[in-house]
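Q: Sequence in, structure out?
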Amino acid sequence: MGQNTPTGEGDAAARGYLLLSVMIGVLILSVFLLMAVPLWETEMRREREEELLFRARQYVRAIEMYTRKHNNLSPQNYEILVQEKFLRKLYKDPMTDHGRWDAVLQAVGAKKMLIVPGDRVGRFLSRGILVGVCSSSPEEGFREYRGKKKYNEWAFYVGAKEDEEMPELEYAGGL
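A: Exactly. Output:
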């Protein structure tokens, strides 16, 4: 039956080795998990980038359809796109915690785009027409979009050609 000593030292030694083995196993598992966290965070951010592209393009598509239906009149805000069913819902900016987009306005009489906080669009409609969205996140992306690295420089708007450089962007409205 094993080594039975009157004091039970054999069982205690075996339990000690077992406890030590379990502790080493937990330590090794912890190290591997700590190594996996940055990879997981990177993968999640890349997925949010893809979601940013998808959601922004949904806004642009909705603005195009609204403009076509309303004889080249641009929408005054994003809510009207949902009300008139050009957009299923107001998508949040996946790159920010608050989820608010900046608005892209085509400046009147100029080729540059005006970037305005989404909640202040009405104040700037005299300077341009609503044509798209832009993330409000100042972080740099993993990829470059139309020559720009920062998410808040990735303007998505009606008439954009994805193979051309981003036009000049002017930030307004307290950015």
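The two ends are 79 Å apart (CA to CA).
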